Every structure is written in C-alpha cells, then in structure tokens.
C-alpha cells in the first residue's frame, strides 16, 4: 500500500504534513514529502488517499487478559479481592479451551478496531489464544499463569509442561507475531520457590516475564508482612525475577525505593488507569516513574475491569490521571503518553523494529480520520490525538503490512460470529454457576 498525501506522526512522534508512506513485504519501505518515482510507486500496490487522515504507529496493549471478554459486565462494583475470589475465579473455572479461543478472538477484533496490533496476555489455554491471534492477523505475547498456593516448585506444577509445550510449538510462530513469555500471576498467588524456579527457567531460555505488582494497597502491605518487610518489587527482585526482561503490571502502590529498583533493573511498567480506577485500586505514580527513568507502557487489563479495549480511551485516562494524581498539569506530556501506548509498548514485548513510522520498521500502523469536529482546529495534532481523539476515529489498522481492520470490516475474521459465540458461551457459564 502507498499512503498518499497523508499527515503523519514520525519516528519521534513529531507531526509531518503531506507525506507519502510506502509499505512492502511487511515493512515501511518509503517515507517522503513527495510521491516516490513512478516505477517505485507502482510496486507498492494500492494507493490510499490520505487527505483528511493522520497516519501514526499502531498501539501495543502491554497488559491484557484477552479471554475475559467473556466476563464483560459480569463482575461489577467490587474491590479487587472480592472481585477475584467471589466472582472471577469461579467463572474462570468453567472456561474451556474453546471458550478461550472465542473470547480472545473477540478481543483481537476489538483491539484491531481501535488501532491496536499487539497485546501481552496472561491467562490459560494459551494454544487457543495463539490460534485466535494468528487468525486475526495480530501480535501476541502469550503467557500461561503460574499459580502456586503451597510449597511447590515449578517442576511440580502443570504450568511447567505448558511452558515447555508453548515454547516448543509456538515461539516465533506466524513470522514472529507470536512470542511466548513466562508469567507469575502475583506474589499472593505464588510461593518463593516457584517464583525463583520460574525466574531461572526464563533466564535460561531467554524468555520475557509478565507479573502483577502492587495493584492494591492490601496486596502491597500483606506482602511486606509475609516477607520481612519486602514490598512486591523487592520480593521479586530478591528471587531473580528481574534478571529477565520483565513487564510489571499496575505498580499502583510502589514506593520510592521500588521505583529506583524498577528503573535500575530496566523493568517495564504497564499502567492500567481504567482498570485501577474502576476497581478503586488507586493511581500509579506515573509521573514519578517517568521522571526517574522507568519505562512506562499502557494496558487495558481484562474486560471485567475496564470494560473495553479502546486504547485511545486508556491513553486519555493515562494522561489525565497522571496529572490529577500528581496535582501537576505538567506531570506527563502528550508525547510521553503516546510513546507509552506505542513504541514503549512494543519494546516491552521485545519487538525492537515496531512502534514507529520510519523506513525499515514493521508496518504496524493505524490511520485516524481527523476530519471530524473534535479534531478542529489542528492547533497541535499530538495534543488532539491524546485529548480530542477517540478510538472510533480509527479507520484502518495494519499489522506487519496486512490490513486487519478497515472502515467497519475485518477482512481476516468473521466478527459477527465471534460476537455470537462469546455471548452464547457467557450465557452457558453463568447458567452453570
């Protein structure tokens, strides 16, 4: 595809008007202020009229539980522990592998609709999750959750066999779109032996790690009581988890020393402002983390605590909540917020050639219709993206040079069937409870 006469946000997220961008073989092959030579232009195929549109890097969802579309609207108005133990865990015990496929597929459809091409997922039945992501044409960092409530080591847990199988069968599948990570659900759902074993397993195999950290004050304080004053951050560091590239989700209640550890160990923090506010968990100290060099990215979390995958909504909330929590209107800039949702999110998934518009990058792109009233005037396009835009403004989403959403259509999947399947499966599970 050749995007013709289109405004864009470049590799530095700076605005450039009236550009031409050529995509070939899954990568961006041309960016310029004029059309390429006639022969080269023809090699890109379809010419996309960019007038009234803005081209930018697609979004990367750094923390999700994709099958939880099945729970959308089910567990409401509860704090985290009651939400998990009283409603979510009993529901999840009824979810089958096929349920996970359809729940994940609907998440992929929704994310593509809103300009997102990749997500980091923590759940179960990950073979089915990978199948859904491959069918939808998007990217997935999948991880099967480690849960260890007694004194078990990794070899005694079913997740060990799952990890062996996933890394053998799915690592690098679909031209690298599928990446297998390890994950620890949380400190309060694991034990030190299992965490240390998983850290060693991940380090030996060069795998990335996902983990929930300090989502609530209760989690943070009870960890200190159990482990001689160690916070979740310092507890996981002591067990070697941060010896691997790690994405720590939430980090709402981290303290100053925790932030220093996160920065020093290069941990990515996946902020989840919508979920944290909805569950009443609080506000992550995003501005303090950015100031100290922590790499902050953005996640939607699961659909029982958000309840949608509109990354532009979460982007808006990230910027506003950081300012509000810090009582400082300069706490986060539009560029910092947008980088969290794009380039930093891609890096948190180990995708070095993704998340920016530049020659040689993977063609992970989204196009926004900026002709609507909320985009006028275009005094500062970057400000408009963060504060005035909506996910509904996305009119095209491209992953590795292939269109996965365009003008209300998903060319690779049957969105209507996915919606019907998820609705029916949720009714079945609720009826079984």
TrEMBL record:
Against InterPro entries, the record matches this protein to: Amidohydro-rel, Metal-dep_hydrolase_composite, Metal_Hydrolase, MTA/SAH_deaminase
Q: Which UniProt keywords apply?
A: Hydrolase
Q: Which residues form the Amidohydrolase-related domain?
A: 55-404
Q: Which Pfam families match?
A: Amidohydro_1
Q: Tell me one GO molecular function of this protein.
A: hydrolase activity, acting on carbon-nitrogen (but not peptide) bonds
Q: What is this protein called?
A: Amidohydrolase
Q: What is the lineage of its organism?
A: Bacteria, Bacillati, Actinomycetota, Coriobacteriia, Eggerthellales
